[in-house]
Protein: ROK family transcriptional regulator
Organism: Glycomyces niveus
Amino acid sequence: MALSPTWTNKSRTRGLILDAIRAARTISRVELAAATGFTGATISELVRELIDDGLVVEVGRGAPTGGKPRTLVQLDPRARYSVGVQMERNACVVVIVDLAGRPVARTSFHGVASMPPDQALPMIASQVDALLATAAVDRDRVLGVGLVSYGPQDRRAGVLLSPQPSEPWLEYPVAERLAQSLDLPVLLDNDAAAAAIGEYWLGAVDRRSTYGCIYMASGIGGGIVVAGEVYRGSSSNSVELGHMSIDVNGDQCPCGNVGCLENYAGPSALVRQAAATPALAERLAPDPDTADFLTEFARIAAAANAGDPAARRLIERSARYLGAAAVTMTMLFDVDAIVLAGPSFAVAGSIYQTVIQEEVDRRTVTWRTHPVRVMPSVNGPDAAAIGAAALVLQSELTHGRTRTEEGRGVGSRARPVPVGAESPPRNTEPSQGKESA
């Protein structure tokens, strides 16, 4: 039965229609009504508004279906942009994406980890400003900035709840201070959650599916997406795979748990293991005390790819541990797929994918009611940064928070509500009949 929205949730309805257009790439009004359940009159009215706002364009006619060919619509990718910033232990990545979620510019730099936040955030802001200028992106079309990092955080307050990379970062108002420096809204989120939603925004997964993401950069994280929404938990700090205990008698982790996955399978763990392996210690001379252990890890992964048996054994053992995490994710959330994202999968990703898929297939054979596919991220090493930008697009557009509504101009700097905040409910009152679009 078709639905018609009330005025109180009109913005939410616009967001649902925008998301359906995004997912379909090109679609007719009749197909939009079928996909969303709204009346033809509602679809026609709101699509017209979206066209007037410059978010959607008509792109010709569809194939004949026995009647008048239907007019197709799609997002105008240049109508809006967002910025994604990934703060890692060793590097910072900045990307600009268009309304379709496609990257249009990128930069990366080192040094943030060695700075206190009152020095690091202005540096990040200057890099964002320079990238926007280089890409010739009109700032009035920029919806905001997604800032993602690792570890626990308070998304609503915009603060990190971990003294990493150093003590001054603990409870520092990172989102507020970066927003002040840029004069743009800033949304703080977890890097793994961002990487997970980036797959959805670029259409790499079915928009109705439940899927997991294992994110590996300097550490290991996880994310779950259910029908286009990140699973958050009560404080938005869920699915911390890297701190899942895999050995109850293991060493204590700085997080307070014991036997954490990250201390067996993460990049820093493999660098330590390689340094303790005579053959690899002689050939690669890995430095377990280096701050840039991602570079050391990449050398081990490259050796494994090149056929070094000792290096391959280390990578495969790491992959089996991650396979155990993937099995746990499968059993807990009944996922359709598991995406491998992050820079640490960039070099030896094919080894990880093969071994993790084998572990999932072997260890869930009795319980599996459908196949679970392990696949690489479409966003590659920059998955978290691209996902950070996608979270802004999702917050501002698909949750009905476009700046063009309620008299706000495109240049308004009103801060977006976090994605996890409560949104107006979708209207469920039936209409008096479905109208044609």
Remarks:
- The longest strand covers residues 142-149.
- Residues 1-8, 400-437 have pLDDT under 50 and may be disordered.
- The first helix runs from residue 10 to 24.
